[in-house]
Amino acid sequence: MFMNLILLGAPGAGKGTQVEFLTKERGLPSISTGNILRAAIKEGTPIGLKAQEYISSGRLVPDEVIIGIVKERLSQKDCENGFILDGVPRTIGQAEALEKAGIEITAAILLDVPDNMIEQRMAGRRTCIGCGATYHVVTKPPKKENVCDECGGELTRRKDDDPETVRTRLKVYHEETEPLVDFYRERGKLFVVDGSRSPEETNAQVLEALEKLK
Ligand code: AMP
Question: 4 CB under 6 A from ligand 1?
Fold first, then answer.
């Protein structure tokens, strides 16, 4: 079935992990603005240079940069039959820009996780510098320590996952991104999932929500 999905939730709520499940289960491409920006920083592109300061301090990259990236990515052929947005939109301005561009959203799935659990999760999170896949030292360890199961890349702790930056990111989430919950609720598109469970249990709830769309 044709589906344009958004995964909403605080940083560390498990959006990336659920997107990995969903891309396998549904065969939809995923678009993570965080991954696109990190790749741009690594390559030293103009967008990367602009984004670096915002990301390392835990603030949001300006809407116009994000909107440009997303529109460009969604115009590619593999998004014709649906896509999953991970970490975008993150502001009302970004959500309105998607609407203005005529990009229909089928459902926004909120992974609901309390802040104290987010802080614990982020402390153990490790990210592949090669492909961006995420792991957790306790709940989702790689088969071989510090080596990505997917691509063999090195696993590191993202700079913006240090506790102080995580607190800033959570504050930014509550102030700027959480209003999107009401935005999509008002449009009858919101599904709330308890994201504090294991990745598999959370995935089961996500799939249950998607069943309701049929
Ligand atoms: P993420 O990997 O989604 O947690 O994103 C990491 C960082 O990239 C965020 O803390 C922001 O600085 C930036 N970023 C990613 N996506 C967006 C977005 N949609 N709007 C603004 N900033 C973003």
Answer: no
